[in-house]
Amino acid sequence: MAEKLIIFDTTLRDGEQSPGASMTRDEKLRIARQLERLKVDVIEAGFPASSNGDFECVQAIANVIKESTVCGLSRANDRDIARAAEALRPAARARIHTFIATSALHMEKKLRMTPDQVFEQARLSVRFARNLVGDVEFSPEDGYRSDVDFLCRVLEAAISEGATTINVPDTVGYAIPELYGNFIRTLRERIPNSDKAVWSVHCHNDLGMAVANSLAGVKIGGARQVECTINGLGERAGNCSLEEIVMAVKTRKDYFGLEVGVDARHILATSRMVSQTTGFVIQPNKAVVGANAFAHASGIHQDGVLKARDTYEIMRAEDVGWTNNKIVLGKLSGRNAFKQRLQELGVAMDSEADINTAFARFKELADRKSDIFDEDILALVSDESIARDHEKYMFISLAQHSETGERPQATVVFTAQGKEVTGESDGNGPVDASLKAIETHVKSGAEMVLYSVNAISGSTESQGEVTIRLQNSGRVVNGVGADPDIVVASAKAYLNALNKLQSKSDAVAAQG
Ligand code: KIV
Ligand code: ZN
Q1: How many domains are contained in the chain?
Q2: Residue 189 within any structural domain of the chain
Q3: Spacing, Cα 141 to ligand 2 middle (Å)
Q4: Does ligand 1 come within 6 angstroms of the Cβ of 169?
Q5: With a 6 A CB cut-off, is 227 part of the ligand 1 pocket?
Q6: Could you say which ligand is closest to the alpha carbon of residue 239?
Q7: Residue 325: is its pLDDT beyond 60?
Q8: Which of 169, 186, 201, 299 is deepest in the core (most CB within 10 A)?
Q9: 280-291 residue pLDDT tens
C-alpha cells in the first residue's frame, strides 16, 4: 500500500484572507460541504478567536461536516485556543492549529518577544491545546526564514508536548523548491522525536513557486501533508493550489508513489463554486481548471489528440470534472431534475422553501436563455444565498437607454432595507449610468477598484458574470452578479458588494 498524502484545505481560512474574498456563513457552509464531497482530509474552517462571525462559521461547519477533519486556527495563547476548541466542539473530528512566529524578524519586530519567550509560549500552547483535543497542529510562522537551530528546539518541544502535525510555513513565499525540500529534510533528520508527528508544508506563491515548493517538501523533505487552497486563493499572490497539487501527485504517481484521497471528479465544480462565490476569476490558462486547460487550438495538436489522446494530453478532462460543456437543464426541466442537479453539484439547500425560490429563479432564467449549464445553476444559487444573507439592498429591475452619440441613461429599482427605491442617472456608458443611479440613493462613498465581466459558459448566449471590488475605509469586498444582460449583472454585483461592505461594518461594530 502506498503511503497517504494528507490534503489540508485552507480556502476558508488562509484563502479568505485575500482582500475582497470574505465569505458569508452560508457561502462558507456551501464550500465546506463541497470540500467534503471532494474528500479533502482536513478543512481549515476559520480562525474562531478573530471575530464572532468567524467563530460562528467554524461552529456551523463543525456541526455539518462528518467525514473531513474540521480545523480551527488559533494564535499560541490560551484564550484563542479555548475559543477554537469551543467552536470545534460539535465536530466529528476536530483539530486545533496553533501558531507563533519564529523568525528573528517576526519575533523582534512583530511580536517584540525574545526567542526564549516564543519557545515557552509555543510549548505551553501546544500542551494547553492537547488537553482540549487529541489532534493538534503546530506552525512556526515564517518558519522557512527562521534560524534552523532555534526552529529545531521549538519543534522538538512542540512534538514532546503532543503536537500531532508539524507544519512549516513559507509565509512570505521566499523558498526555492530544492532549498525548501532540503530544509524540511534537515528538520526531520535533526529533531530526535520527528517521527512522532506528521510533517506538513504550507507555501505561499509570491515567486510563483508555491506548488513546486510544496512538492519538493513532499519528495525531498518527506512531508505527508500539503496545505493548499482551491484555485490557489490566498493573500497576495495566493497559496499553493489544491487542484495542481492533487493532479501532480495523481498524474505522476510513478514519481511520488503516494495516495491522495481527493475525488478529483469534483475539482472543477469546487473551483467554480469558489470563484463564483469570491469573485476571483480563474485565468483561462490556469492549470487543471482554466477554460483553456484542455483546449487544443493548433491544428497539429488537434490532429494528434484525435488520433491518440495521450499525444498532447497527460490527464483526462473528465477526470477533473469537465463535461464537454453539455447542456444540463432547459425550460422544460422539472423541479425534481433541478433538485437532483443541485445535489450533484454539492449545493445543499436548507429547506424546501429555498429550493422553491431557487427553482422559480431557474424558470425565470430558462425563459430568457434556452440552455442552462452547471455554471448557470451555480451562479443562480450563489445569487440566491447572497440575497438571503444580506438583504439590505436587493435588485428589482433596470431600464437603460443607450444610443451612439448620446449619453446613456439608466433607471434602477431596488430595495433598501425593505423599501422600494428608484435611482436615475446618466453615465459614460450604460453600466456607469446604472451604478451611478444606485449611488444616487446609497451614497456609499466607496471606491471601485476592480470591474470585470466574464461569460459564464463561453459564448454571447451565456450569462455574463460581473465582479466588482469596492473599497471603503480600509475594507475591501468583492461583489458578484450574474445575468444574461451584463448591465443587470453589473447592477446586481454592485448591490452585492454594497451589502458585503454593509455586513462587514456591522460585524466590526458588533465586535466593538
Ligand atoms: O502562512 C502562514 O504562515 C500561515 C500560518 C498561520 C500557518 O498561514
Ligand atoms: Zn499562510
Answers
A1: 4
A2: yes
A3: 8
A4: yes
A5: no
A6: 2
A7: no
A8: 201
A9: 989 889 999 998
pLDDT tens profile 367-416: 888 778 877 887 777 665 545 555 789 999 999 999 999 999 999 999 99
Task: Please report the atom of ligand 1 found closest to the CA of residue 141.
Answer: 3
Reduced to 3 states (helix: H, G, I; strand: E, B; else coil), residue 217 is helix
Q: What cell does 464 get?
A: 455574463
Q: Is the CB of 373 under 6 A from ligand 1?
A: no
Mutation pick for ligand 1 pocket among 111, 141, 200 (CB with most ligand atoms within 8 Å): 141
pLDDT in tens, 151-189: 999 999 999 999 999 999 999 999 999 999 999 999 999
Please state the pTM of the whole predicted model.
0.86
Task: Give the amino acid at 239.
Answer: N
How far is CA 427 from each of CA 84, 337, 411, 485, rounded to the nearest angstrom?
49, 42, 11, 18
Q: How far is the CA of 171 from the centre of ligand 1 (A)?
A: 6
pLDDT confidence band for 346 (50 / 70 / 90): low
Contact partners, residue 259, CB within 8 Å, separation at least 6: 1, 2, 3, 4, 5
Task: Quickly count: other Cβ atoms within 10 Å of residue 406's Cβ.
Answer: 9
- Give nearest CA residue, ligand 1 atom 5: 141
For ligand 1, is residue 14 a contact (CB within 6 Å)?
A: yes
Asked if residue 442 and residue 457 are part of one domain, the reply reads: yes
Q: What is the mean pLDDT of residues 68-95?
A: 98
Please write down the HEC assignment for all residues of 61-83. HHHHCCCCEEEEEEECCHHHHHH
Q: Measure 239 CA to ligand 2 centroid, in angstroms.
A: 7
pLDDT, mean over the chain = 91
Backbone angles phi, psi at 43, to 5 degrees: -110, 115
Question: What are 460-473's pLDDT values in tens digits?
Answer: 777 888 999 999 98
**Which helix (H) or strand (E) is 459 found in, with range?**
none
Is residue 434 assigned to a domain?
yes
Q: Does position 148 have pLDDT exceeding 50, yes or no?
A: yes
What's the domain range around 348?
A: 327-382
Q: Is 135 in the pocket of ligand 1 (CB under 6 A)?
A: no
Q: What is the CATH number of the domain that holds 118?
A: 3.20.20.70
Task: Choose which residue among 17, 99, 107 to substitute to test ligand 1 binding: the one with the highest number of ligand atoms within 8 A of its C-beta.
Answer: 99
